[in-house]
Amino acid sequence: MSALEGLRVLEFGQLVAAPSVGRILADFGADVIKVEPPDGDPLRHWGECAPGSDSWWWYTQARNKRLISIDLKTAEGQGVAKELAKRCDVLIENLRPGRLEGWGLNYQQVAVDNPSIIYASISGFGQTGPYRDRAGFGNIAESMGGIRYISGFPDRPPVRTGVSIGDELAALQATIGILAALNRRNQDPDNRGDFVDVALTEAVLSITEGLLPEYLNAGLVQERTGNQLLRAAPSNIYPTADEKWIAIGANTFGTFSKLTEAMGRPDLKADTRLSTNEGRVARVDQLDADIADWTQKHDLRTLVNLLAESGVPAGPVMSAPEIAQDPQIQARNMVRYASTQDGQTIGMLDVVPKLTNAPGQIRWAGGRIGQHTNTVLSEVLEYSPDTINHLRTVGAIR
Asked: What's the pLDDT at 232?
C-alpha cells in the first residue's frame, strides 16, 4: 500500500510551485487530479521540448497525475470544478490571490460544501498584508526573501541559482503544511480541514539561517562571500590540475586535521589560531589559498579518492552527464524511465525521499492536455457520456 493511497487531491496549479506539491503527493500514491486550462499548463513550453511535443520537464512535473482540462472562465466549467472540490481531501493552487474567489473556488467557498478539505494556497506574498495582491514569481521571492542578496561574490552583482529555488522551497513548505493538517484532521472528531497559506518570500526566508537573527540581535548585515561558507571554514570549491572543481568541507577541527594530514601540512594543524572555527573563519582567505595551491597540483579523481580515504567530506562539482553516470546515483536507482500513456519512454529523476515500507513510485509520465478528462468525470463525478459530451460541446472541458 502506498503511503498516501486513498488521498484525493485537486490541483489548480501552473508552472512550478503548486504542481511540484502535486507531484510529490502523487509520487507517494495520492490520486492527483490536475486541472489545466484548454491551452495547457505553460510549463509544457518551458525549456527544451521533446520533438513535436511538450518540454522534457513537463513529463516529470506531471507524472502520476490524472490530467483534465476545464475552462474555468465558463460557468459550466466552474460548476465541474466545484463538484470535484466536494469530493477531494486536498486542494492546491498557486494562482494570483482573488482569482479563484471570482470563480467561487476559494477556501471559504469550497469549505461550505467540504469542511474537511485541506486547502493549500501558494502565492508571492501570502493571502494577507499590503503586498497580497501583487504578482509574485520565484525570481521576486528569492530577491525579497534575502537569498539573492547573499548569493554571489562581493565585487559582483547578486546572482540566482540555476533552478527555481523559491518555487521549489514553497512547494516543500506547502507539502509539509498539507501533511501536518492531514495528521491533525485525522485526530479531529469533527474531521475539520484547514487552510495552508504559503508565501514564496517566506519560504525563501525560512532557509536563510542566521541572516535575520544576526541582524536583529547584533546589527550584523550578511554580505556576499562567493563560494565560502560564511559561518564555518574551510568550506569552498577548489580548482584541480585537470581544470575541474572539487568541493571540500573541512569545517570541524576533526575534519580539518584530516585535511591537513592529506595535504602534508602539519604546520596548519599545529597552528593554534586554526584550532577553533572562529579562528579558521577569521583566516579563511589564506586557508583557501593554501588549499587551492594544493588541489591544483592533483587531478580531480586523485583528490576525490585521497580525501575519501582520509575521511574528509569532498566531492566533484558535477554536470548532468556526470550525475547520470555516477556510481552512487546508479546504485540508488535515481535515474528512472517511465512511459507516457501514448507509449513514449521518458527519463527522469526517481522519487525523493525513499521510504522503506511504503516507497513512492513513478507509475506514468505526464501526458496530453485533457488526457483523463472523460475518465475523471465519469469515475469521480459519475457523469454520463451525454453530460460529458454536452460540456465538451459548450467548451467547458477539453
From this structure: 87
What whole-number distance in Å separates Cα of residue 15 and Cα of residue 95?
Answer: 10
- pTM for this prediction: 0.92
How deeply is 185 buried, as exposed, middle or buried, from its count of CB atoms within 10 A (0-12, 13-18, 19+)? middle
**Continuous segment of H or E residues that includes residue 338:** strand 335-339
Among candidate residues 147, 130, 136, 278, the one with its CA nearest the CA of residue 212? 147
Catalytically active residues are: 167
Joined grid coordinates for residue 191: 474531521
The distance from CA 217 to its chain's CA centroid, rounded to whole angstroms, is 31
Which band of pLDDT confidence, cut at 50, 70 and 90, is reported for residue 278?
very high
Predicted confidence band of residue 130 (pLDDT cuts 50, 70, 90): very high
Cα–Cα separations (whole angstroms), residue 8 to 22, 66, 84, 123, 378: 11, 11, 10, 22, 15
Q: How confident is the model at residue 269 (pLDDT cuts 50, 70, 90)?
A: very high
- For 80: left if phi > 0, alpha if psi spans -120 to 50, otherwise beta; the answer is alpha
Residue 328, amino acid: Q
HSE-CB for 371 with a 13 A CA cutoff: 18
Dist. CA 127–CA 135, nearest whole Å: 12
Chain segment 284-333, per-residue pLDDT in tens: 999 999 999 999 999 999 999 999 999 999 999 999 999 999 999 999 99
15/43 Cα distance (integer angstroms): 5
